[in-house]
Amino acid sequence: LMQLFRPLDLLGMVYRTIRQGLVDMDAMFKLIDTDPEIQDKPGAKTLEVNSGQVTFEDIAFAYDEDRGILHGLSFNVPPDGTLAIVGPSGAGKSTIARLLFRFYDPQAGRVLIDGQDISHVTQNSLRGAIGIVPQDSVLFNDTIGYNIGYGREGATQAEIEEAARGAALDGFITKLPGGYDTQVGERGLKLSGGEKQRVAIARTLLKNPPILILDEATSALDSRTEDEIQATLAKISERRTTLIIAHRLSTITHADEIIVLNEGRIAERGNHRALLAKNGLYAEMWKRQAEDRQLETL
Ligand code: ATP
C-alpha cells in the first residue's frame, strides 16, 4: 500500500512547490504591475535626491487612449511635506502613485523629483528612493525575518530587529514559537491585516527612502490597531516627503495639503481647516465620515 502512496506523496510535494511558486509569482506581479514599454533612456542618469521635492506638472494620463484618467494634474509636495489625496473610488488616486514610481509614463506633462524628470533617470535609482506601504501587503512564503529583510538587500539580523521595533512588531514576533524564523504566508502563520501592514512598515524603515507613499487600506482595522498604526505611520513620515492616498479623512487632518480628486481633476485643494471652511465636497465627505464614526461608537 505504501508503494501506492509514494507517487501521490511526491505529487503532493510537487503541487505544493508549484503552488508556492505561483503564490510568489503572483506577489511579484502585484509589485511589478508595470508597462513593459517603460525602459531606461540611453544614458539615463542616477536620480540625485537632495531635499525630496515631488512635483507633478500638468500631467495627462490614460491607460487606454479612449479613456482619460488624469487631466492636467499639477501639485507640488515640498521637502518633508505631506500631501494627501482623497476622492471617490476610481478618481485616479492610485494612478498618481503608479506614475511616481514610473510604472507608466504620462501622455503629457512631467513628474519631477528635486527638479529631475523621472523619465530621464534610471528606474533603479527612482524606485530606490521611494518606499510604499501598500493597502494590502504581500507576504512571501518564508520566515517573518525574511519578509522584513526584503526591504533592503543584505540587511543584517540586528537591522531587521531594529526595523521590527520601529514598526512595533517586535513584541509580537518574540512571542512566536520560532521568533524571527517563524514561517508566514500561505503555508505558515497567517497574519492579520494590521500585522501585515506592520511588516510593510518595517520593510520601509529598512529601506529608509526619502519619499514615502502610504496607500491607506479601504477596509477598516479595529480602532485600537488603527490608532497604533497611525502613530507608527506618523513617525515614519517625519522627515520624509509623503504622499498619502487616504480613505479616512480623520487620518489626514495634519497634511500640509489635501487634494480632492474627482474624475481625474482637482475639485478642491487646501489644508483641512481651509477645506472645511469652503463647505464644499471635502466638508461634505467630512460630515458623512464623522456621522459614520459616531455610529460606530454607539
Ligand atoms: P480606489 O479608491 O478605488 O482605489 P483610485 O482613485 O485609486 O480608486 P485608480 O486605481 O487610480 O483609482 O483608477 C482610476 C481609473 O483607472 C479607474 O477607472 C480604473 O478602472 C482605471 N484603471 C486602473 N488601473 C488600470 C489599468 N491597469 N488599465 C486600465 N484601466 C485602469
UniProtKB/TrEMBL annotation:
Its main location: membrane. The keyword Transferase does not apply. One of its GO terms (molecular function) is ATP binding. Residues 54-288 form the ABC transporter domain. Keywords: ATP-binding, Membrane, Nucleotide-binding, Transmembrane, Transmembrane helix, Transport. It is found in: Cell membrane. The keyword Membrane applies. This is ABC transporter ATP-binding protein/permease. It comes from Parasphingorhabdus litoris. The lineage of its organism: Bacteria, Pseudomonadati, Pseudomonadota, Alphaproteobacteria, Sphingomonadales.
